[in-house]
Amino acid sequence: MLLTLEGLDGSGKTTAWEALRPAYPEATFTREPTDSWYGDAVYRSIAKEDADPLAELFLYIADHADHLSRVIRPALADGDLVISDRYTDSRYAYQAAMLADADLARPLEYIRGVHGAFTREPDATIYLDVDPETAAARAGATDKYERTAFLAEVQSNYERLIDAEPERFVRVDAGRSPEAVIDAVEDAVARLVDAHRDGDRD
Ligand SMILES: Nc1ncnc2c1ncn2[C@@H]1O[C@H](COP(=O)(O)OP(=O)(O)O)[C@@H](O)[C@H]1O
Ligand SMILES: Cc1cn([C@H]2C[C@H](O)[C@@H](COP(=O)(O)OP(=O)(O)O)O2)c(=O)[nH]c1=O
After folding, report:
1. Does the CA dihedral 65-88-11-85 come out positive or negative?
2. Which residues does UniProt assign to the signal peptide (predicted)?
């Protein structure tokens, strides 16, 4: 089963992902951008204010392709629970916002289309919902993505993704204390894992 955690920078994904580890010692915990050299290339591009957004998109996609073949597909083939801190929805939400002013029709649909040919859809996605001001403040506004106006665009793209596939998403109010957010994420993961197991028995 593939579970993903999504949300704005500073929504608390990494905090929740770390908190889940002890409860699922057998699971594969992974993330995007990855810690491979493809992921390093992505982080180099994030640090460049003037990086070409289309070139940057394809760095993320290269990292995702490697992540799928090296980590995700083998773990799923072994029957593992896989929990990824960010995954494809991050690309649909962030890179569609980055490409909003590019000479590209319907960027979100374009990015979904490129992935559609080869990716593995998540079974469920937990969306940590926080307002862009709080997100930017928590994240520290250290790079080009962590600005309120940009994060507002990203948030509206996430909302489009949720509207399109409401059954895949579990929304968690991430504006609360870290303890409350972690509890809500732990409950959601436990319910999703149980439901998946029950589904397998049917
Ligand atoms: N619910 C919360 N309330 C306040 N601060 C939080 C909360 N969750 C995380 N933080 C803090 O916000 C920052 C970003 O959290 P992090 O878990 O790395 O978010 P993300 O992975 O979504 O960017 C960290 O300093 C973290 O300690
Ligand atoms: C995976 C991914 C990340 N990002 C961005 C979001 C983050 O600002 C940045 C680094 O991701 P990450 O290290 O997960 O940052 P954070 O913990 O602050 O959320 O990369 C994209 O724009 N597209 C993507 O597909």
Report:
1. negative
2. none
Name, in order, each residue with C-beta under 8 angstroms of 117's C-beta and a sequence gap of 6 or more: none
Single pTM value for the model: 0.97
**All domains in the chain, ordered by first residue:** 2-201 (3.40.50.300)
User: Looking at the CA of 174, which ligand is closest?
Assistant: 1
Cβ neighbours for 5, distance < 8 A, ≥ 6 positions apart: 13, 16, 17, 83, 84, 85, 86, 125, 126, 128, 185
Can you tell me the distance from the alpha carbon of 65 to that of 118, in angstroms, rounded to the nearest whole number?
A: 8
- In sequence order, what are the beta bridge partners of 82? 2, 28
Phi-psi map region of 141: left, alpha, beta (phi>0 left; psi -120 to 50 alpha): left
Q: Which of 194, 196, 168 is nearest to 88 (CA)?
A: 168
ipTM of the complex: 0.97
CA distance 90 to 144: 15
117-170 per-position pLDDT tens digit: 999 999 999 999 999 999 999 999 888 888 999 999 999 999 999 999 999 999
Q: Is 13 annotated as a binding residue?
A: yes
Cα of 7 from ligand 1 centre, angstroms: 11
